User: What shape does this take?
Amino acid sequence: WQLPPATNRRVTPTHAPAPITAITCAATMRISSCHLGVCLLVTVVVVAFGSVRVAAACTGDLDCSLNGVCTTSGACACDKPWKGSACGELGFAVTPRSGKDIYNISDPHNTWNGPIIGPVDGKYHAYVPLYEAGHLFGAKTMLHGTAASVTGPYSWGVIDGIPGINPAFVVFPNASNSGKLVYSLWISGAVHVADNPNGPFTKYTGFSYPGGNPAPLYHKGAFYMTNQHTTNVYTTPSMTPGAVWTVFANISHANVPSHVVPEDPYMWVDKRGNFHIINHAYNTLEKTQCASSTVSDHFFSSDGKTWHLISGLEPYGHTVHFDDGTSQIFCTLERPNIHFDASGQMTHLSLAADLATGDEGCAPTPCVNCKYDDHAGTLVVALDV
Assistant: This one.
């Protein structure tokens, strides 16, 4: 979790946009620490001495982050909840206050996000590690929460015998029992399976996966995953004892801004068959004005093999508005997980949150590391769909 530093962010498209005949500066551009913006006619991006946003006409769906389509008019038509000129930003809706920390916010113990699935038989299921107060290392136990709404309120119990941090979850068809589903919890190098989201979960003997902080998915009869720093995609054809994972793709970080470190991946395949990964991303040189510090990034691929990233374009930011009229700036929001409804529509984003520190930060400690001295929890944000 300790990381190198970062400087200015820049926009570097992963493919060359076509020339245009007019200069366009997007209203959605974000500029920090800058005194001048210049629109370049050739590359069609906003250039600034600091943070920037894409402001280009599109020539293909890659220019729309594969979160929409490039129309004949040369503009991106974004799938909800994506927005922005390159469909690279998640639109947040006003979130129920119960989503601010789905665990008991008055309990001094920390949580640090985990997967939420469902509804199954009318209930959502959250699997969240519980830490001692004042700690984010060595989870104490695994919580299992159930609720009628994805934003809660949740009733909590404990899953015994599954220690570890950074869990992931995959639901997939049972190959030996047609019509049945397998519920699988991936944590600490092992996979625990059950035929019901309530458990009991049993360790699947002889099956593991490469690296830590897994982001697995099941797609067209095979398993795919990436891990902590999101440099490779791995695949294996089945969950069987002794299964071998092979490298399916390398993920280029050439367009990741200098000193920015991606981590905590979440991977999915959209309705068009495009692959996506969102990450928490951070820069340890950023110690004040945490509301504008680096917090996320987005890799995307049409085939899972060749990956793209628009440098400096972040899928989520630091501010959340709640239905009780309050808003909060979180100095860091990590471990993103996306929730989809039964139709495949993305509806919510869950995040690990520093609940105490906001824009002010905790200098000289970097914004990303204030969490180690603060109360941490699990936030569920409603998306604008």
